[in-house]
Amino acid sequence: MEIRQIQYMLAIAEEGNISHAAEKLFITQSALNHQLLNLERELGVSLFDRIGRGVRPTAAGKIYLENARKMLDIRNETYKILADFSEVRRGEISIAFSRDWGSRIFSMVYPRFHALYPGFTFRTHEVHTSQIDQLLEKREISLGFAGFRKEPNPLFEYHKIYPVHLILAVPISHPLAKVAGEDSWKRRPVLDLDTLQQIEYLVMPSKGTFLRKLCDELFTSVSYQPNILFESANTRTLANMVINQVAPAVLPESFIEEYDKTACFSLGNAFSGYQSITSLKDSYLSKAERAFIDIYNEVYDEYVVNAAH
């Protein structure tokens, strides 16, 4: 099987539609359909059933796709190993991160990495945290900026784990700001969770985000049902809503910087998450990928952990 042919079939399976797969591959629909028909003729089996405007793998197609992915994985890892042997300092790193914090930390890591490995490019995916796990398991990426609540995924290797402490940030004009007192961003007084009942409106992270999962767990624990004024998948947007005196929000502590416009409460260690850069346990990481991990940990220490104290 040709690598290009494998990539074509995997794209069809992922998109569930030949037209959409063709757009993703930057080829015409007729050319991709021709490739599929030729392969099915060569193998003597149908790989996809046509259902309406979409397609679905047949039993034979599932076998082909499963083994095609394995072949592509072996090829990619072999190339990375050989590149390390030859000291070639060019290539591509596939990585996924969230649209807010992940993109922020990536923009800090990239300049340092690029200075060491200018010949490397990145194939990036900006997605929800739950999707990062899926991309890693499917080997569509080699590295991910993953967040998790309690137990880490046993399939992943976590390259140093950092706690993500949550705070309740309230506009300085909000009545609770007086309860927090002066310099609350520095002292972070612990919030009596029953006090949440006094908050009329909140801005909330969108459903499906890691932060929303933490918020829902917190509110359920004290039987609090917030009136949601606004939702966003971007944590920076939520922080700006607090800073601009719109409504309180539960945020990772590193997102509040304009202390004169906000008051902050700690929610206690019971409502923390964890953050790490991750890879599949059985995957080969190139020297460049390991260098990226080291720089990520350096940057996280400098800009996040130290800033929090």
Structure described in brief:
The protein has 309 residues and is of the alpha/beta class. 46% of the residues lie in helices and 24% in strands. It is built from eleven helices and eleven strands.
Q: What does this protein look like?
A:
The protein has 309 residues and is of the alpha/beta class. 46% of the residues lie in helices and 24% in strands. It is built from 11 helices and 11 strands. The strands form 3 sheets. Strands 3, 4, 5, 6, 9, 10 and 11 form a 7-stranded mixed β-sheet that branches. Strands 1-2 form a two-stranded antiparallel sheet. A hairpin with a 2-residue loop joins β1 and β2. α1 packs across α2, α2 packs across α3 and α5 crosses α11. The termini are far apart.
